[in-house]
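Reviewers of the previous submission asked for a worked example of the structure-prediction workflow described in the proposal, so we include one complete record here. The input consisted solely of the amino acid sequence. No template or homolog information was supplied to the procedure at any stage.
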Amino acid sequence: MEYRQLGRSGLKVSTITLGTMTMGGKGRFARVGEIGLDETRRIIDMSIDAGVNLIDTADVYSDGASEEIIGAALGGKRKGGVLLATKGRSAMGEGPNDAGLSRYHLVRACEASLRRLNTDVIDLYQVHKWDGLTPLDETLEALDLLVRQGKIRYVGCSNYSGWHLMKALHVSELNRLPRFVSQQIHYTLESRDAENELVPIALDQGLGILIWSPLAGGLLSGKHRRDTTPEGTRQLAGWTEPPIRNPGRLWDIVDVVVEIAAEHNVSGAQVALAWLLGRPAVTSVIIGGRNEKQLSDNLGAANLVLTAGQRARLDKVSLPPLLYPYWHQAATASDRLGPADLSLLAPHLKG
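From that input alone, the workflow returned the following structure tokens.
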């Protein structure tokens, strides 16, 4: 297992993070998985044995049940230097202040997560989604309070747009408040939207990238083909994240993933994950599994090395067209592009 520095922080995390959305099985999250306590213990032990040192969850997963199961599985002890990451922002009640990134809700949400996780401190506390109604200085001051109280160690964001993220970093610097060390985002071979703004920002500003649903809800695992959807999958259960806007392009990508998987005698999932781990600014991919077999297979991606030629094939079949102003920059400003610019524009430049 490789360990990478999380953004500008001194914290090192494994390139594979254990995701826990499949644990708990309450409400709409039952469509993703219904893993109970005993299997959670086995999955955590398998992950630690493979070198994983980061477990990621969120208060909203199964209405807190995911955090509770992790807390019970760990028993208040951090095995093998395990780091805990969770998120707050989602509605955890029906009251007008039971959601959002206000000081009121965020402090209460963090304290509730600490109780459910059966721990004194959360290593990485992430704001789960944007809140356009709460001033950023209020949110960041609340995070500062939690850091100073010793309840959280590092802060990150998730699902922010480029301007949201840059505004937050500016407010942190201006007011000497905790700075996000990472962003947790959706990024896959099928969905490369993050390359427009979020990946260049990570390179330019020194943020780590954690990737959720790196297999596009299982669609890039190689098990799904143009005319086949396996039983027991999220899609048949009605799970609609992420949206697929161009099915033809998706299956073209899957065809190449499956071809390369056959060349290595591994699963398509390992190929899709290994491709991500070679992309700029990516720190770790968050994997789960509806069972131990899936988890074991996904863990194998940490040791898979794709050739330059195989990466080029995957890059080509999945390359999206440039949006404005990037096509204009590629055409007129290619003489003065920096490393962050080139992370997006290099494949589109001639010569």
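Strands lie at 3-5, 12-14, 16-19, 54-56, 83-88, 122-127, 152-158, 182-186, 208-212, 282-287. We consider this example representative of the routine output the project will generate in years two and three.
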